[in-house]
Design a protein that fits this description.
alpha+beta; seven-stranded mixed β-sheet
Length: about 180
């Protein structure tokens, strides 16, 4: 699936976040994410954001001071987010490979491959898997969507991440990329 858009919203009736993924081929995948799952997902998403393919120049340099590295990561994150489109309305897909009801995600795994793409696998209790290949920009945007939607959930999660301002009070209940 070649990703065109990501959107997150909160369903108070279900007490779950709904992740909607739209493709350029007009498919849409909807996933339910629970509080526990989001909390666990965050702990593996942040390191995935911080990974990048080392270059020869990186290997020849002396190791960076952790504070300097964190500032560089914050700047990189902010630059990616500023270039992203959070205004265009989400295009509801005509086809839904997982059905009309969002798939309840019970497990998420992340792997980064040699081409610096991040594979995120969303699994359900009945053995269905949704595999998404995300580039660094999409990984950063997924992080940002979670950070922006969390205040509307009232889950009380305090998640530490790449930026010092990851959890921002947001009055809307829908975030779009």
């Amino acid at each position: 699936m070649q990703i065109h858009q990501l959107q997150m919203s909160y369903s108070p009736e279900e007490d779950r976040i709904i992740l909607r993924v739209g493709s350029i081929t007009d498919e849409e995948i909807c996933l339910f994410l629970t509080r526990r799952l989001v909390n666990d997902f965050w702990t593996i998403l942040v390191p995935a954001m911080q990974q990048s393919e080392p270059t020869l120049n990186d290997m020849q340099r002396t190791p960076e001071i952790p504070e300097v590295k964190k500032i560089k990561q914050e700047i990189q994150h902010q630059q990616i987010i500023e270039k992203s489109d959070y205004i265009t309305p989400f295009n509801k897909g005509k086809e839904s490979p997982v059905g009309q009801i969002p798939m309840l995600t019970t497990k998420i795994s992340i792997n980064t491959n040699d081409s610096n793409m991040t594979l995120i696998v969303f699994s359900s209790a009945d053995g269905k898997n949704i595999n998404l290949n995300l580039n660094q920009e999409l990984v950063h945007n997924l992080y940002e969507l979670i950070a922006k939607i969390l205040p509307s959930t009232n889950w009380g999660l305090v998640l530490k991440g790449v930026t010092n301002t990851a959890i921002i009070e947001n009055k809307t209940s829908s975030v779009l990329h």
